[in-house]
Specification:
single chain, 574 residues, alpha/beta, FAD/NAD(P)-binding domain, 14 helices, globular
Length: 574
Amino acid sequence: MTHTIPIQFDGETLHARPGESLAATLIAHGVRSFRTTVSGQPRGVFCGMGVCQDCLVEIDGVANRRACMTKIEKPITVHRGEHARPLPPVSASGSGSGSGSYVAAPEPEVREPELLVIGAGPGGLSAALFAQRAGVQVTVLDERGQAGGQYYKQLGVSDSEQGVAPPDAQHLRGAALIEAARKAGVQFIHDALVWGAFEPKEFIATVRGRSIRFRPAACIVATGAYERGWQVPGWTLPGVMTTGAAQTLWRTSRRLPAKRVLIAGNGPLNLQLAAELLSGGAEVAAVVEAAPRPGLATLGALVTMSLAAPGLVAEGIGYSRTTKRKGVRMINDTVIEAIEKNGAGLSVTLARVSGETLSQRIDVDVVCLGYGFEPANELLRALGCTHDFDTHRRQLATRRDDTGLTSVAGVYALGDCTGLGGAKAALAEGSVVGASVVASLGHALGGSLIGERDHAAAELAKQRRFQQALWTVYATPLKAPKERCGNTVICRCEEVTFGELDAALDEGLSTVGAIKRRTRIGMGRCQGRYCASVLDEIVCERFGRSRDEMSGFAPRVPVKPVSIAELAGYGSDS
């Protein structure tokens, strides 16, 4: 018998699986609109990883809770998020009603771990495990309730429940790594929102409502990456989400984003998602890939990939075979040009990368967008770590030496937050960086650990060759669609349009800071994570400048939204 937890959503009783996210429960019951904006527009799940802040709902009277980050553990009462809804008065303790006087904020707890690792994805886990085995006392902070990151997302619901597919090989590899770290003695602190980083290497996190300062002897930032926006008409509609959000629904909760899905973007993750959703019973209308179909021009890169990482190539072939066997159309050299609401679903217009609009429309329930990634380097930038602009990837890359050390003493960084390299590279890099930190802290490496470090270094070199060849295969002159104008939204938080941006540019505003003050682009909850790079590209192109470390928005604290009560030390642990 299937065990469920009843929750109330706007007066209706829904049944959730224990351990799944609230977002997964709502989507499984056909709910796509989670909140309304200041202009009354509906919004739903977009990023699925707590970055975009678009799935905010009210839970048990507390507003602005992220549905994608809320795990169902008990019955709760949920209401759609509503802009400017009156909130109950807050007492001096930070919860409940009342109008008592506030007292001085308590001093936050201070912890001084030997090594602090921020992020529990493959790289962070690997580094933590290596350092702990060498005798370093390691604390890992992770924003999620489960370790694993985006790649090793763990199944949050029981596979003994009826209709829940068991963990796959990727789940199991992640579970083994997490268990090894726990057994070695690594301390994990989950639900830890790290919102502040201060020179030289001090961090502040909210852990279930409590503020804690961390002053480690050394730190490793392994915060990963998030998917880029694709600012075309309709990209903010409920039912439009990132590839990663759809994959999170399936891999953590065994919930499909919808029955009929269109997947579009640039890169191999889109093909993996198609295969996974097909295994769950979804209908994938098409996979729309911006890169041309592989041919003779990419033969050398394909050979390099096969020699460097044959296992990954085999996985990719398996995904391709699955989609072909299920009759999924693969449309290359094509991007999404516009998305429109069509009854209860969505209607998608496609265009060639060259700009030619295609006449055929595709009608689906959900659209998944995967047009590349941006490094989550906010903490590194706040600490003052030097970055260089990668013109090929169009993103900032953290400047590091071969051991992962940044320009700031005692601050190391690895994985996709430093510039994209993939999960397998991060896994190997974790051991290399972990070994470097061990030495810097005065610990000795035993013979077996030296061998593991050297093996990891060799594996890292292979994975980097693989990644370079992979992106040669997926290379495309991806440009902004021609419809990025007029009423199309550039900043989804503040609902600023490209038309408003053009007006600011026509006024002669030539810096992103001035444009931000004039239009509010980048002032919203996501703090410019989806609009900043697009704005920077437009401004630099308009005024003949090159993008660099100083051309975009400056990093600011808090790097993620945190309540005033939490800042004051009165946060609730609910």
